Amino acid sequence: MMTRYADKKRSQMLMFCMDDMVPQDHLLRKIDRAIDWNFIYDLVEDKYCADNGRPSLDPVLLIKIVFIQYLYGIRSMRQTIKEIEVNVAYRWFLGLDILDGVPHFSTFGKNYTRRFKDTDLFEQIFSHILEECMKYHLVDTSVIFADATHVKACANSKKMRNRIAKQEALWYEEELKKEINEHRKAHGKKPLKDKEDHNQTPPSVGGGNPSNEEDAIPKGVKTQKCSTSDPDSGWFRKGEHKHVFAYGVETACDKHGWILGYSIHPGNEHDSRTFKTLYDKLLSYHPEMMVLDAGYKTPAIAHLLIEDQIEPLFPYKSPQTKKGFFRKYEYVYDEYYDCYICPEGKILTYSTTNRDGYREYKSNCRDCKDCPNLSKCTESKEHVKIVTRHIWAEYLEKCEDIRHTIGNKEIYDLRKETIERIFGTAKEQHGFRYTQYKGKARMEMKVGLTYACMNLKNLAKILAKKEQKAYDMLHSLIKETRNSIHTEKLVLELNSSTNFVYSLKAARSGGLNFNGNIVGFLSWPSFFFIHQFCKFLMWFTLVPVCYT
């Protein structure tokens, strides 16, 4: 029966308030109360001209549109604009009424390429929101968790070409080279000569015939696969049999799940090689401990953290030894004599220090020739066993001592509740499994705004919860007081010279007493004033929030 009058309801004219159409507990309401968006004007002030050209769209409006996209994990900007056109809550958040036109979906893209390109605007937005979280004493940087995840790039896995692999210099190369030469000199060895750079500049991307570029690569040169549409991405193995082009996103957070920093690199680069970029951003937080997975358990990272007086917490890493052979820990290192002792009690003496920073210890072929466990020790035709030890190996041994410290196992177990949870939430709710953008710069924009949305969402929920808790406490206080007024006999201690309802003497003695006696009286307007005053204090004072 109701569908009979549907057309009448559709065509009727109503007078309503935009604010009444959005539920009071809507997420966008909480976010809008949690932060003052005017800080964006200060960040983009030098990118706009006040007295020249056509009037531009409000920069806050542009940023809010992207926030809606990443907050709700909408697939594209085109779809985001369609959602804004019909969603009243989105319009309320953007400051648009029902009749206001929505910007074209290409507006933000044009502003990015013409105005925001080659700027750190989005990183500044992320940093500002993180500072807002710190103002409420929500962030604890004493222990930092770091890990990396892969985001599928906007690149066809079948459209690729080979290019010359250019090996990037390691961030610890200079320091390692210095210590290697000092160690070789102490053992009477000559310093290593500088390594000649045989790397060639990779062929340019775009234009030309890819097949001709591949023909120009000389034989015997190491190559790598490169996407023709997004050359900044890296060829990454996803699963057992699938390969895709992807980006690696290194992320750091605290024990409460607040995102502290991030860095972007191609998907084919190892996490230990790109760790320094993220680490430099985290030094300002002065952490006491960093919790990392087995991919970061290298002598260089252990040396870096311990030298900076930061405790590295790594998991157990299984030995990378061929099955059926002796494990490396079965060869005992004698620090005093600087040698190794094999399971059969034979000595492996120092031989040299290679370019990678490993000291080589070799056995005597005469001792190994008739050894009964030779098949479990080495496959060398010369019957020589070589055991390597990094010049920073003692830092890894210190890491093992830290790992066995009481309480550190429980700290490491928090990874699944912090950094792993961040990755899962970002991929399931915020469209972080893949990207529609091409290039590292746009990927940095996507990651920065996505992480900013996640921090802001958590902040808004915590502040809303705190507001509701304060309101409930005050409401129960008012209810209890009104019930007491009706059930108890009021005892008024009035001053003979005054006519105040609530005497100064009662105020000094504590006012209301809910244990049985009421020594004072507060009128209902007074309670309303207290309610408004408590809301004022709640929003303009920095009160620590207790995690439950």
What does this structure look like?
- There is one protein chain.
- This protein is an alpha+beta fold and 548 residues long.
- The chain folds into four domains: 16-119, no CATH class; 139-194 and 206-315 and 399-448, no CATH class; 328-396, no CATH class; 459-540, no CATH class.
- It has 20 helices and 13 strands.
- The chain has helices spanning 6-11, 27-34, 39-43, 59-71, 77-86, 88-94, 107-116, 121-135, 173-186, 210-215, 271-282, 299-307, 365-369, 374-377, 393-403, 408-412, 419-429, 440-487, 504-509, 524-540; strands spanning 143-152, 160-164, 223-227, 234-238, 242-253, 259-266, 289-291, 311-313, 332-334, 339-341, 347-353, 358-362, 386-390.
- The strands form three sheets. Strands 1, 4, 5, 6, 7 and 8 form a six-stranded mixed sheet that branches. Strands 9-10-11-12-13 form a five-stranded antiparallel sheet. The chain has a two-stranded antiparallel ribbon with strand order 2-3.
- A hairpin with a 5-residue loop joins β10 (339-341) and β11.
- α4 packs across α18 (440-487) and α5 packs across α6 (88-94).
- The chain is elongated and about 100 Å long.
- It starts with 5 loop residues before the first helix and ends in an 8-residue tail after the last helix.
- Mean pLDDT is 83; it is low at 198-208, 489-525 and 540-548.
Descriptors for this entry?
single chain, 548 residues, alpha+beta, 4 domains, six-stranded mixed beta sheet, five-stranded antiparallel beta sheet, 20 helices, 13 strands, elongated
